[in-house]
């Protein structure tokens, strides 16, 4: 059997629509008929930064929802015909971090789906059965795919890293992007008063539509000063930075109130985006105001399950502004490089 897939033949090359063999499910794997795959900056970075992909050719794509069409001989908890969503970290599941619910820090980490093994930019995908979880009946394939990263990531960031609670004031930087737009919703769900910052009118409006209480246009001056102005000079209890450039990170630190938390999600390599990401902090202020800086690295499979439940309960919604056929992946990537997409994009099969 063969299938269509978007294949990366070598570092720096564009993805090309190719006919390749359908992958085989190993004893502990499941074979999925892919129904939807999210398109985000992680994939764009992966194709452009040397060393991210372990071997070529490679099929990218990690935000995946699909239908199980085959199970390996050792698989007992997943059945043919089930709709499932995928966790994209390949972990050992037995180290101290995996066993304590912090599998994203796995000490025997084997890489990422779509980088260390083929991913979801294809009609079929094989993945370890331990990496999948059922999709609730009323949640669409598209929403479930987006949930696995673009919604689950801010769920973890708000709940575990920023520790957002009722009455908190929270700054979301990159609030109109594919992950940030869900960060606005998640912070609101946690009870926060949300300040949304971005650099285009349509993204700021999208953040407003998703519940942001105040908007900051980063094109119009210093981020810290603008955030201080809309918070009456106090600053914010937490700042979640989905852009993570030097300017945004330093602006976030400057905007923190006493005991404030900065949460950094992702990074943008200078070789790809031309922006400097390293930043400086004043240790005296860090000490005096007892500020915290957290790195937030993806999510657990349990957090994906909880995010899917929030979708089922309609307490959060997936914001997808554009969908593409499989062969439209490169067009979607070009829009991402140009910061021209509001919310998430996705491939539909």
How would you explain this protein's 3D organization?
The protein has 349 residues and is of the alpha/beta class. 29% of the residues lie in helices and 26% in strands. It is built from eleven helices and 15 strands. Strands 3, 4, 5, 6, 7, 14 and 15 form a seven-stranded mixed sheet that branches. Strands 10-9-8-11-12-13 form a six-stranded parallel sheet, sandwiched between helices. Helix 6 runs parallel beside helix 7 (246-255). It is globular and about 65 Å long. The two termini are 18 Å apart. The model has no long low-confidence stretch (mean pLDDT 95).
How would the blueprint of this fold be written?
Elements: E1 2-7, E2 16-21, E3 29-39, H1 41-48, E4 64-71, E5 83-86, H2 96-99, E6 124-128, E7 132-134, H3 141-161, E8 169-173, H4 180-189, E9 193-198, H5 201-209, E10 214-217, H6 223-230, E11 236-241, H7 246-255, E12 256-265, H8 270-273, H9 283-288, E13 292-296, H10 301-312, E14 320-324, H11 329-337, E15 344-348
Parallel strand pairs: 8-9, 8-11, 9-10, 11-12, 12-13, 14-15
Antiparallel strand pairs: 1-2, 3-4, 3-6, 3-15, 4-5, 5-7
Shape: globular
- Number of distinct helices: 11
Largest sheet entry: 7 strands, mixed
Structural class: alpha/beta
- The arrangement of helices and strands along the chain is EEEHEEHEEHEHEHEHEHEHHEHEHE
Number of strand elements: 15
Strand percentage lies at 25-35%
Estimated helix fraction: 25-40%
Rg, Å, rounded: 20 Å
Whole-number mean pLDDT: 95
Low-confidence stretches: none
Brief description of this entry?
With 349 residues, this protein is of the alpha/beta class.
